[in-house]
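Holo model, dinuclear copper ion. Inputs:
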Amino acid sequence: MHIHQLEKQWAAIALMIAGLFVVVILSSALFHGIHAPSNVEAIDSAKLHLSAEFAEDKLGVQEHPDGSITVRMVAGRYGFYPKDLVLPSETNITFRWVSLDVIHGVHIPMTNMSTMIVPGYVAQVKTLLHHTGDYPLLCNEYCGMGHAHMWSNIKVVGKAQWEALNKQGGVNHG
Ligand code: CUA
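Output:
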């Protein structure tokens, strides 16, 4: 069977592009901490208010004895709750997300905090916020008429400033 020279060249280019994508995926996973969400943890989205972890008074920031932080948040049409959060920079943070209605997405630009929030499951993302400042928290999964207005803010401050705020109860605790 004869294969035209041009055909071979295009096949080689297509293979190289596919190879390049594999390299990009591997390097983002191995060196940039970007992973497809793999946390499979079921939860009853209709009973979040009764759950041990996502009842209203449990939401927000929880600091652990080793200094790491867990942030529990609920996404629902059309907002992320609690509304205002202050987080420390350069600290191991585990975000745990649940939805109370439909599929939402959440993304903090310029960080690896990006995941879908599927009702019935807990979405978990570990991150380290390197820069202080105000970050938008955006819904990036179409969820209804108010989707474009579904966003809030996270304020990232230095660790020392955060500790001081934390003592005054100003970081939105559960
Ligand atoms: Cu929530 Cu779009």
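The pocket of dinuclear copper ion is lined by residues 104, 139, 141-143, 147, 150 (CB under 6 Å). The helical segments are 5-31, 159-167.
Archived with the compound record.
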